[in-house]
Amino acid sequence: MLHYISPLPSERQQGPWPRTIAILGSTGSIGRTALEFIRLHRDRFRIGALAGAKNIALLARQAEEFRPACLGLLDEEDVPALRRLLPQGYSPSITVGQEGYETLARLPDVSLVLSAQFGAAGLRATFAAVESGKVVALANKESLVLAGALIREACARSGACILPVDSEHNALFQCLSDMLYKIDRQLADARSTAVSRLILTASGGPFFGASKADMASVSVEKALAHPNWNMGAKITIDSATLMNKGLEIMEARHLYGLPLEAIDVLVHKESIIHSLVEFDDGGQLAQLGHPDMRIPIAHCLCWPERMPTGARRLDLTACGSLTFFSPDEEAFPCLGLARRAMREERGAPVVLNAANEQAVAAFLGHEAPFSAIPALVEYCLDDYLAGNFARYGAPSEPQNLDGVLALDAEARERAGRWLKSGPTP
């Protein structure tokens, strides 16, 4: 039964135009694309805050252009350099670290927070925005992977709304929007929606058709050569291993409330269909478009309105054939590992994500082979579910944010030891 993670934005949350936005991760791929879209509609948006981690030069250029009252950086030591790069007469407040990101997420004059930080590091700020009752345009899927149930509970308490930015989950949201609206406004019962299956599409990444043996000596350069999407390095590697699709299965489970067995993956090399919804009568709805993140970003920033994005218009006569395949889980074991973690629950998704982030970082740093990514994830999952995490004993679901972050830290510690010296007893 369809059970969306949050209410839809109320009239109060939609508010008058211009909307005031905080972009957490403004120097990353999603943040830069969001600002590209906002440039087309400057009269409809006001930038209240930008946070850019370590890319000081780009953050300074963005700040000079949009003049937000608040900026965020990861490290205190970078503040003087940022100040020097800002134009004379412009002195925004600068917050630092995860606490600083949380402060920006809670700013009272911000109505919408674009959560676009990288990895598990985005959880605390996402949670702060939810606790503050914001509309959250969520590009940080790890927030739901690590703490989906906690975020659902927090949305119920605060009235916060989650709008999914990931292209696949935004496609599902668009296909389901009429039903979600009727359920949210109590014009229909969730049992009447008759949604039988969610189908997430995957490009297959740069190694579609390769065997497990073929990928034993994959280089970083080849793994970063995604055929369709221009993304950050970590998510590109996740696409190459299909871990990204595994994380998206978890994200869909938390967003839409359907059981794990009702969420499937279909490899679609052309990335024209971004996901599909199947109904009990056998019919399916799909959302189509060129692979361009401006479309889902704009859908979230403008909801319930639609605005021009500058994206190329889709001409189906020029697309040629659209092809579809079942994923090869033997060659891409990360997909099965993610399903296993979601079935087990009890904190297993936290461990899976932490191990994956550590393994991907090691691969990108030329410190581990591509094959170490699924191997490390499987080792850490086995270790945790066997009760070998010293501080935890029998696996159990973290009951609060601190519990999630503590488990994440221990999983990273054990993964780091494995990367240095192999499996430990």
Keywords:
four-stranded mixed beta sheet; Rossmann fold; 44% helix; alpha/beta; Rna Polymerase Sigma Factor, Chain: A; 17 helices; seven-stranded parallel beta sheet; 11 strands; 425 residues
Protein model, in words:
With 425 residues, the protein is of the alpha/beta class. The chain folds into three domains: 11-165, Rossmann fold (3-Layer(aba) Sandwich); 188-289 and 314-319, no CATH class; 345-421, Rna Polymerase Sigma Factor, Chain: A. It contains 17 helices and eleven strands. It has a seven-stranded parallel β-sheet, sandwiched between helices. A four-stranded mixed β-sheet has the order 9-8-10-11, with helices on one face. A hairpin with a 4-residue loop joins strand 10 and strand 11 (284-288). The longest helix is centred in the C-terminal third of the chain and has 21 residues, at 401-421. The radius of gyration is 21 Å and the shape is globular. The termini are far apart. 47% of the residues are buried.
- How many alpha or pi helices? 17
Please report the distance between the alpha carbons of the first and last residues.
43 Å
> Can you give the mean pLDDT?
92
| Strands, total number | 11
Could you give the topology of this structure?
Elements: H1 11-14, E1 19-24, H2 29-39, E2 45-51, H3 56-66, E3 70-73, H4 79-85, E4 93-96, H5 97-105, E5 112-115, H6 123-131, E6 135-138, H7 142-158, E7 161-164, H8 167-184, E8 195-202, H9 220-223, H10 233-241, H11 243-256, E9 263-267, E10 273-279, E11 284-288, H12 294-302, H13 316-319, H14 334-344, H15 348-364, H16 372-385, H17 401-421
Parallel strand pairs: 1-2, 1-5, 2-3, 3-4, 5-6, 6-7, 8-9
Antiparallel strand pairs: 8-10, 10-11
